[in-house]
Design brief:
Elements lengths: L1 H15 L1 E3 L5 E5 L5 H20 L14 E9 L2 E8 L1 H10 L11 E9 L2 E5 L6 H12 L3 E3 L4 H6 L2 H5 L3 H8 L6 E10 L2 E10 L2 E9 L1 H20 L9 E7 L4 H12 L4 E9 L3 E8 L3 H11 L2 E7 L2 E6 L2
Parallel strand pairs: 5-7, 5-8, 11-15
Antiparallel strand pairs: 1-7, 2-4, 3-4, 5-6, 8-9, 9-10, 11-13, 12-13, 14-15
Helix pairs in contact: 4-8
Amino acid sequence: MAKRLQMAAALCLFLLSGMAMEDPYSVQVPVPDQSPEARSEAFQRALAAALLKIVGHEVTVPLPQAEPLVEQYAYQETPEGWQLWVRFQRDALNRWLQEHGMPIWGMRPSVILWLAIEEDGRRRLLGEGDERLAPLLLEEASRRGLPLILPLLDLEDLSKVKVGWVWGDFFESLGEASKRYGAEVMLVGKVLRRGQGWLGDWTLYMGGDAERWQVRGSLDAVLRSGVDGAADRLARRLAVVPRSTSTSLAIRVFDVDSFDSYVDTRRYLERLPAVEAVWPRELGPESVLFRVKLKGMMEEIEQAIAVEGKLIPLSVSEGVLEYRRRP
């Protein structure tokens, strides 16, 4: 019951806070009208936009004709003009990517952004309530398929997070404050005015590893580069070239030496992305061999396990993925 309540509370926070999280196989592009010619051209732009999210970087090879890959589309009239929403066929697009040896970024950990901005000698934190900069950040995150969370900066946040913690790189303290959002990755940014432009100092913190980079430019460009830099680095780490189209696989987990650890491990595997069902195939004194039925790619399971860190990878033996339960 307590776990269900925690999950419900986390869901409420996602709904209340700013968050960009979309299906990478669905995109929306502007279109001048509803003519077949305009729609065909928009399909090609939509395909390029979808591939950017799916692969994690710009695709440089010639793209296929988009229309045969379209699963659904719909028009929407907005104050800015017509928009065309397009959803592409996941399996067909994945086959094309596999044929061309391109990676697929399946597992996308949620990213909490702690951002401090300094201007005229004053520093402030940026949250989802910033009317100008928050939409810019979420729009760029949507373009890159990055599940970005902007903090609420409510009383609970402000009682735990100080602007000096962001400026001083107090990652451990920021990590504690991030737990309420259920984020697996932190993006920490410090942006300050330098002369006529801006300087952005960014750090992506994931699983104990930190990657840092700096950029200069206009304020908008510096902010977009923070989101792009995070997406680039996560895609490099998590995107994989599909090796097979198997519908099932075997996973052996060691240090499963009690009924409780067996139940916990099986439930963990069942909730992984791309998993449809899990059955025990062989029970040993300290390990269990599971048969896993897939509804996606095997690589998505490997990515999810690598991000969450609950299982330690050992090897691949005779087609069996082997892991050890983390103590």
